[in-house]
Design goal:
FdhE-like fold; alpha+beta; 2 domains; single chain; about 35% helix; about 300 residues; nine-stranded mixed beta sheet
Length: about 300
């Protein structure tokens, strides 16, 4: 199976052992098709199969439109240099202004999704999305970038998030990995987003390392293990899992801030995919809903659950 392409600022060695790269940038050409395949596989043995199949159709549509989109505009070199100097992500979510490529991405995705099977509520929401003008689209995009889940427009939010994923993954794939710097615990070095989950990987040179995964741009960045990705604490860290599930999916809980973010042990099961397996492991969220911990991972596909 192909892995996201790795860009290292320096192929340095520590004690004769390759240093784990700080980031792995996404490859949109395989990102969405791989996620779709994983969702299909998970749907075969899940009590939430219809929803997983619906998300798989969204991922197939995301993959299908890639060849028809113009290249997104990267941040200006001076913005990237300033971000590197002051430990900031080069893409400022708060200042992001949707352009013609972002709008075209939305409209192509919504048109492609018109061909797919979907629940009645999603079909109605998609019809509304296809009629929106640019300012209305921009408000939905802003809500996605603010990690806001509007209770009265959950289906619309899912479609908007899917479009933003395509645009931001394409932006991230064209970044210079060597210009990216850590910007804070649990913060994506490309777009400043929060992680959906983290992975313990088995890649050569990074065996056993942990990488957080951005929900929107799909950048993976190296984070210290046994450390809360919400508040940065290393105290009061624990792990919860569902008995009999094999131990490949756990919730890393933090007593300091009362949050949790899932950890997927990909070095034990290379099929694990952050977004797909986060949704499929909803049972773990439901288990923790009765506890003192609240969800810290960001996933608009779980809005309403």
């Amino acid at each position: 199976m192909s892995e996201p392409r790795s860009i290292e600022p320096d192929p340095s060695m520590i004690g004769g052992v390759p240093k784990a790269p700080f980031v792995r940038l996404p490859d949109p050409a395989i990102l969405f098709s791989r996620r779709a395949a994983r969702l299909k596989a998970l749907a075969a043995n899940a009590n939430m199969a219809p929803y997983l199949e619906f998300l798989s159709a969204i991922c197939d549509a995301q993959s299908a439109i890639l060849a028809f989109l113009a290249a997104p505009a990267l941040p200006a070199p001076e913005i990237v240099a300033r971000a590197q100097q002051f430990d900031m992500p080069p893409i400022d979510r708060a200042a992001f202004k949707p352009d013609a490529v972002m709008h075209e991405t939305c409209r192509r995705l919504f048109n492609e999704l018109e061909k797919t099977e979907k629940p009645g509520a999603a079909k109605t929401a998609l019809a509304r999305m296809r009629q929106l003008d640019d300012p209305s689209l921009d408000r939905l995009i802003a809500a996605v970038l603010a990690d806001s889940n509007p209770a009265d427009a959950l289906a619309e939010h899912i479609f908007a998030a899917a479009a933003v994923q395509v645009h931001f993954a394409r932006l991230a794939s064209r970044m210079n990995g060597g210009a990216l710097v850590p910007v804070g615990v649990g913060i994506c070095p490309v777009c400043g987003g929060r992680p959906v989950a983290s992975l313990i990987v088995g890649w050569y040179g990074a065996e056993g390392a942990r990488y957080a995964s951005c929900m929107l741009c799909a950048t993976l960045w190296n984070e210290v293990r046994v450390k809360c990705l919400v508040c940065g604490s290393t105290k009061g860290i624990g792990y919860q899992e569902i008995d009999g599930e094999g131990g490949n999916v756990k919730a890393e809980t933090c007593d300091e801030c009362g949050s949790y973010v899932k950890v997927f042990y990909q070095h034990k099961d290379v099929q694990l995919e952050p977004v797909a397996d986060d949704v499929a492991s909803l049972g773990l969220d439901q288990l923790l809903r009765e506890s003192a911990y609240s969800r810290g991972g960001i996933n608009p596909y779980l809005a309403g659950y």
